[in-house]
Design goal:
This is Very-long-chain aldehyde decarbonylase CER1-like C-terminal domain-containing protein. It is built from 9 helices and 11 strands. It is of the alpha/beta class. The strands form 3 sheets. A 6-stranded parallel β-sheet has the order 5-4-3-6-7-8, covered by helices on one side. Helix 3 packs across helix 4, helix 3 packs across helix 8 and helix 3 packs across helix 9.
Amino acid sequence: MGIPTFLQKAKQLNGNGELFRQKYPKLGVRIVDGSGLATGVVLKSIPSDAKQVFLHTGTSKIARAVAMALCGRGIQVIMNRKKEYDMLKSQMPEDGASYLKCSSNDITKIWLVERIDDKEQRMAPKGTVFIPISQFPLKKVRKDCTYLSTPAMKIPDTMQNIHSCENWLPRRVMSAWHIAGILHVLEGWSVHECGDDMMDSEKAWSAAIRHGFVPLTKA
């Protein structure tokens, strides 16, 4: 059985659930932080013809996974925070490292963001698409930009008596983190998804589609 770690995902709190797993090694359920599916949803939200994206922060588990996947596909990932760039660069596989760039001058209209303030949003060029990579929605500061949903999918028609998963999501739409826990059970996956361990994003995405979950956006 899988359970999502909604309020325990932050690495600074418990290592994305790893400390809890170590404390209870005989735990009968599986800890699922949902990072694999969330990463998959974010990747599928990025336009298929994208050549370049801006990563606002690269410290989270999902941010790192998204950056590595994009660089591995030959898509340039731009960051403007040198310390975070250096940290991510050191973890990047050699074949994708050249696609990670630190710059304050390159302008791109696809922004991958977690926490971003009003001032930073106003720095984005007109027509920018803001793609959240965390479970919390962005404050919509710009009227000349597009804001995508937090990582989420429409639930299958066969799922009944479900209204809103989060108060910022439409009816019958569920966050990727909740869906991941359901998939873990449906697929009979026996591994934990916590700490530095993550389900393969494509595997998680394919399982979601196979079980009838529907993307909110098309790349």
